[in-house]
Amino acid sequence: MSDSTSRSHAVGDSIVPGKLQEKLPASVEKAVPNAIHDTGKGESKSHATDESAVPQKLQETVPKGAEEALPDKIHPTN
Are 52 and 75 in contact (CB under 8 A)? Predict the structure, then answer.
């Protein structure tokens, strides 16, 4: 069965509608990137070492390797 507790597991911002958050199992909520539905799982962070042209939420969502593949002129990681 579902591990839903009829409440949201978000601890920060979320673009997921509240009623849907209440119905989703915690495992589904935690599988969504924090940039979309912040459950505080602490896995998302930017690897930029200086100012970046990439929006912060996107920096926190993409894998480290994708950030490092961008030119330092756009998104410095060195």
Answer: yes
Structure tokens at 9: 């597991």
Give the three-state DSSP class for 65: helix
Determine the Cα–Cα distance for residues 36 and 60; give it in Å rounded to an integer.
10
What is the four-CA torsion angle of 47, 54, 12, 63, rounded to 10 degrees?
A: -50
The answer to whether 59 and 44 are in contact (CB under 8 A) is no
What confidence tens digit (pLDDT) does each residue in 15-72 have?
888 888 888 888 888 788 877 877 776 666 788 999 999 999 888 888 788 888 999 9
CB 46 within 8 A of CB 52: yes
The whole model's pTM is what? Answer: 0.45
